Automatic annotation (TrEMBL):
InterPro entries: At4g02000-like, DUF4283. It comes from the Eukaryota. Residues 66-147 form the DUF4283 domain. It holds the Pfam family DUF4283. Signal peptide: none annotated. This is DUF4283 domain-containing protein.
């Protein structure tokens, strides 16, 4: 584990007990809908091409729904959705619901309803399936699924 990682990992854990992660944060994965207000959307057309512009409020709400989300990729091996879901739930053994989302370029997003499950998957690396490493990184607005390899890897 890198020195930088060890430096901020205790901030994610209960300061009084370094082996126990706080699980006071639970979120629902059932409703990611965003209630839009009249001023939240601007539509139009430029040079014959329609466009939609969302307000900063909508962008912030969308980003907030990604709070406990990790970006995963199996290096050197393609894995189907069902196989990957079964494998990661088997090795992580989450205590609460997770949602797996298959996105382009062999990346997956995993949304956690539990902070402790999120921290476990993020910090107790490395993870492997079929002898191949799973890259794990927190989702960020800078994530680009068109990159062949993740921009940040937890070590």
């Amino acid at each position: 584990m890198s020195a930088a990682w060890q430096q901020w990992r205790p901030q994610l854990q209960n300061p009084g007990d370094s082996d126990h992660v706080v699980d006071d944060d639970l979120i629902s994965l059932d409703d990611d809908d965003i209630d839009l207000l009249e001023d939240d959307i601007q539509t139009g057309e430029a040079d014959g091409i329609p466009f939609i512009v969302f307000s900063d409020r909508v962008k912030d709400l969308a980003i907030n729904t990604m709070e406990f989300t990790l970006v995963l990729k199996v290096l050197g091996h393609r894995v189907s959705y069902t196989t990957f879901f079964n494998r990661i739930t088997g090795i992580w053994k989450p205590s609460h619901q997770i949602k797996l989302i298959d996105i382009e370029n062999d990346y997956f997003l995993v949304k956690f309803s539990s902070r402790s499950d999120y921290i476990h998957a993020l910090t107790d690396v490395p993870w492997t399936i079929f002898g191949h490493y799973i890259t794990v990184e927190p989702w960020s607005v800078d994530f680009n699924p068109q990159q062949d390899y993740p921009s940040h890897i937890m070590a």
